[in-house]
Design brief:
By secondary structure, this protein is mostly helical. The chain is built from five helices and no strands. It folds into two domains: 1-41 and 116-146, no CATH class; 47-114. The chain has helices spanning 2-15, 23-39, 43-72, 83-114, 117-141. The chain is globular.
Length: 146
């Protein structure tokens, strides 16, 4: 029953997907519900899990914003990009990827202390499953248009 409710809520959230930014909060709420259901966290696990997970998500969002602003942004003017500027962008990208990798490793290490390893793996799978569902719902709402 809960899975049906999540799917229905996901559909409603995606109806407003292209309209404005509040959809992000809806998607975040749906993701929390989806992960909670998938991991079946005990109350003490949830109490330790969510602050660490939320901090990690915020850090990963910061990395994504940095990448869009500092790396992908300048790529819009690729024709006018000098070789030295391109080198600097590649260096920034490498550094950012290293930071993301370090953050991911630290996060997984923290999660292992909070939840069993099997649930850590289930978390990774649940995040991917949620993304797939979200993309599928978006495609369905657009009538299958690419």
């Amino acid at each position: 029953m809960t899975k049906i409710m999540i799917t229905i809520a996901l559909c409603f959230a995606l109806n407003g997907f292209a309209q404005n930014r509040p959809y992000m909060e809806k998607i975040k709420s749906l993701k929390v519900a989806f992960i909670t259901e998938q991991l079946n966290l005990a109350p003490e696990e949830a109490q330790a899990f969510w602050p660490v997970y939320n901090a990690h998500e915020e850090q990963m969002n910061t990395f994504r914003r940095m990448e869009r602003r500092e790396i992908r942004g300048p790529l819009r003017n690729m024709e006018s990009l000098k070789d030295t500027e391109a080198e600097a962008l590649v260096d920034k990208l490498i550094a950012l990827e290293k930071e993301k990798q370090q953050e991911q490793e630290a996060f997984l290490g923290q999660m292992r202390k909070i939840i069993p390893a099997k649930k850590v793996l289930l978390l990774m799978k649940s995040e991917e499953d949620f993304k797939r569902k979200l993309i599928q719902q978006y495609r369905d709402n657009r009538g299958g248009k690419p």
